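All the exercises in this workshop are built on plain-text protein records. A record pairs a protein's sequence with a compact description of its fold. Read left to right, the backbone structure tokens trace the chain's path through space. Once this layout is familiar, the rest of the handout is easier to follow. Here is such a record, shown just as it appears in the course material:
>
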Amino acid sequence: MTEEIYRSCASIAVFRPAGDTFEMLLVHKPRKKDAWQLPQGGVEEGETTSQAAIREVQEEAGITTEVLGVSDAVYQYDFPTSYRRFRPDNVKGQRIEYVFAKVDAGTVVQVDDEEIDQFVWVLPHQIGQYIIRDKYLKLLTKLYDDGVALLR
């Protein structure tokens, strides 16, 4: 029997100035549940987490940026059984690592209307309006705080 593994993923917390604070970018996948998230995707062979995160935010939001720092946070979860039955491989879930980036206030976000169909810039008190899973909400709140501390 083949050992089950977690898919290696990279995610990026992108910040932009908003007055005397910062907003963080969330993107929306066109699905019913858990649709709002940070830009993210799989780490391809030969890529670092940082390279994958930069590629993903370019693909999903049309943003070109640079990594300013790497988070110590990791979010790992198992795919639901209903999803697993459609996967012909041994991937049982995802293990996501995070990086931080900053863009100018006037940066234009362009979603592809296929993989990503909406975006929003949020302040920390607004994150809970979009993120419903408690564990992920706590993680994004921590990433916001850590990212802003890095930027100051």
The chain is about 25% helix and 35% strand. Strands lie at 5-18, 21-28, 36-37, 40-42, 67-78, 91-102, 118-122.
